[in-house]
Every structure is written in structure tokens, then in C-alpha cells.
Input
Amino acid sequence: MAGPQKTDTIAAVATPPGIGSIGIIRVSGSESLSILRRLFRPHGGCIKEKFQSHKLYYGTVVDRSGQILDEILAVYMRAPATYTREDVVELHSHGSWLVLQSVLTEVLAAGARPAEPGEFTKRAFLSGRIDLTKAEAVIDLLQARTVGGVRLAVEQLQGKLLDKIDAVRSALVHILAVVEVAIDFPDDDVEILDGGRLLEQLQQQVITPIQRLLRLADQGKVVREGVHVVIAGRPNVGKSSLLNGLLQEERALVTSIPGTTRDTIEEMISIHGVPVHLIDTAGIRTHDNPVEELGIERARMKLIEADLVLFLVDASTGMTDQDRELYKLVRNHDHIVVLNKIDLIEDDQLSPLEQDFSFPKPVRISARGRVGLDGLQEAIYAKVVTGEEVREQLSCAPNVRHRAILAATLEASERLRQALIMQAPADLLAVELQSALDGLSDIVGLTTPEDVLETIFSEFCIGK
Ligand SMILES: Nc1nc2c(ncn2[C@@H]2O[C@H](COP(=O)(O)OP(=O)(O)OP(=O)(O)O)[C@@H](O)[C@H]2O)c(=O)[nH]1
Ligand SMILES: [Mg+2]
Output
């Protein structure tokens, strides 16, 4: 694995700041046990207690003068069966930030140094317990905002992505082995290099799986980061009512006066685990009021940035000239036409209205009556989440860093394919193969440059 293993002992508060019933200080490194012995007085035990690994002890933690700081539970976990593969100690005190700080001060005085952000996980990586994709999964797990994001991170932590990358790597290694034999025995070049077979292997075991991983990366971005959905329409069509309906709370002001919403309002909902950022905007119309005009300008800007626009029309008035003007802005964007206030008209009056929109079919709702909102959510989901995998269960999705490397690996593989078709000399094939392999080694962390590692682990919080 990359880099030598550090041996100094690190410590940090592993639980978030604030008041909690418990707070945990984590210590990792060769001094962990001696630090525990120095600070901890087990209940009914003696100072020279032989701590059994992975067992909780009840007692008190004391400072250098012998003053009791807190009643705690302590656990000593002997290497290598630990998060970092080093000796680890955890002190579970009461969750007061002051107590945690005073205990940490004593741990540091006893020989540890403060851990950097992500340093525990970095040690797990450097010791070879986890690869880089699993370390990244830990960050994703901590930062996930929906069940979908959590699910994806857990699957990655279980090694789903690693397995797929490993399969592609071993296919490339296999091809490289054949090519290298051909280099060593140039006279037998033609016989050894069965171009047709290698091409088939390259396509089935390298190119197709990488293409699939790239598609999954796009879908994974949707699950992790979510999509921006803008509710747009002329004033008074019920945009804020729709926002409130989807949020199931009275978040935005709703009145019968056109021009109620002046600024954009943003809230998040989760549709089947996908974070959907809903943005309610000021109704767009021409107006002299400068405040309203600013709001309208913002609404236009949001429209441009949106992943999807919900174009809201008041079914009871039908399409007005203003609606038609506004629809011109939306038409070329990914959008769903939503006919609101269907409670005010008869069903048969809706069909002629729908004819204004060729495709896709408008969704009928009553925002105020909370009717049709489930159907609308399904329509939003179907629009933003493409591909069967996500709908069934996305279990593996490369992130932005992996995506860039996979794209480069795909290019190298394509060049290799061309070279095989052209029956290029074996040493040239070997060069392309090696460059494809190097990229994949970067993904799992075998050869990842130090600065990339730094960037990845700096995203962690301290104590993880
Ligand atoms: N009957 C009926 N009235 C609705 C429905 N949805 C909204 N309204 C009413 O329409 C009026 C305008 O609703 P809003 O949600 O404020 O409309 P808006 O599009 O946000 O308006 P602006 O912020 O001014 O652009 C309010 O009086 C709502 O109660 C609906 O489904 N049926
Ligand atoms: Mg509004």
C-alpha cells in the first residue's frame, strides 16, 4: 500500500460538538494502551489492570493531579482487529463539550498528538485494511442526505465498486501477460497474439464494463447530490401552493394576490431516496415594481440553472398569452407541464387544454387540495432518474474522481482496440495496456499521488 505506516499515536473527539448523552474520544497508535492506563481508573480494579481487548470497562478518568474528570466507559482494542489496524482506545464520557475537551487535553498530555481530519480513516487505508474507494465511501456515508445516498455509500464500503474495478484490472493484466509473451518471443508473434480473441476479451471484459460504470457514475451523481427542480409559471397559478403541498407544510406564503412570492424559496424533499431541491420562484410577468422585477430576474436565472422545470398552468383560466410567452422560455428545457386547480373545472374541459402540449403529457393536480401530488412526484422521478439500475437499486456508482479516470481508461482501451485491429506491434500494445492499468490503480489507491490523497482525506471531519 502507499506510503510507510506512521507509528505516532493520534487522538480526537469523534462525536460532533454540542450536548449529547455520550461523547467519544478516539485514540489510535502504539501508545494507546499506556495512555489508557495513565488516565483511567477501572471501577473495583487496580491501575495495573490487564485490559482485555474489545471489552468495555466502567470507571473514572482522572487528570494529572488525580482529579476525577468524569465517569466513563473505556474500551481497548488490540491491533490488528481495529478500524486503523493499530491499537485503538475509545473513551465514552458524558457528551459535554467541556468534559470532552478536558479529557482530550489529558490524552494529549499523556503522549498523543491531535489527529488531522480523516486521519483515522487514512491510517485504515495506509495499513491496507481498506482501499481508496472504501475510504471515499466513509466520507459519502457521513455526508449523505438521503437514504439513497446512504445505501450507495454502504454498498461502496462493502466493496461493490472495488470488485468491479478489480475485475476490469485482472482482464487487462491477463491481456498484458499475453502481449508480453509476444514481446519476448517476437518470432511467434502471430501465433501468440490471437488478435480476434484479445479483441473479444477487451470488448467484453474491459470496454463494456467501463462504459457501464460511466453510466452509473452519472446516475450516482443524481442520487448523491440530487437535482434542482424549479417551479415556474405566471403569477397566481399556484406555485407556492405546490411547493407547500410537496413539502407537506405551509412553507411559502400563499395569497390570492398575484405577485405574492418576491424572492426564490428553496427546500429539499426526497423522492425514492433522491434529494430533490425544489425552488419556488416569483411569478414571471412584466411589471413596474422594482422589487418584483428583481424577483422575476432571479426566477429567470433559476430557470436556466434548473435540471428540470415544472411549468405550472392554471387550468381554470387555460393558457393565456402570458403563459404562451413564458412557455417559450421553458420549452427547450427539460420540463413537465403541470395543470393546476383542476378542482375548479370539469374533466372534459381539460382535454382541449392538454392539446396545447404535444409531449410529454401534462400532469393534472390540485395543489391546494393536495390532489395528484403523488403522480407528480413519480413524473419528476421518472424524468430525473434515467436508467433501470437506479430505479431498481443503484448499488455501485463511481464518483467524480473515479469518473475522470474511467473515461481516460476507456480512451486508452479504445486506442488499444484500434491497435489490435491494425495488428500493431506487441510493444505498442503493451504501452496502451499499461496506461489503462495505471489509471485503474489510481482509483483503488495503489498508485494514487500524495496530493490527491491529501485532498480526499481533508474532506473528512476530525475524529473520523
Ligand atoms: N381552487 C384552487 N385554488 C388554488 C389551487 N392552488 C392554488 N390556489 C390558489 O391560487 C392562489 C395563488 O396561489 P399561490 O400558491 O400563491 O400562487 P403563486 O403561483 O405562488 O403566485 P405568485 O407567488 O404570486 O406568483 C391562492 O389563492 C391559492 O389558494 C388549487 O389547486 N385550487
Ligand atoms: Mg408564490
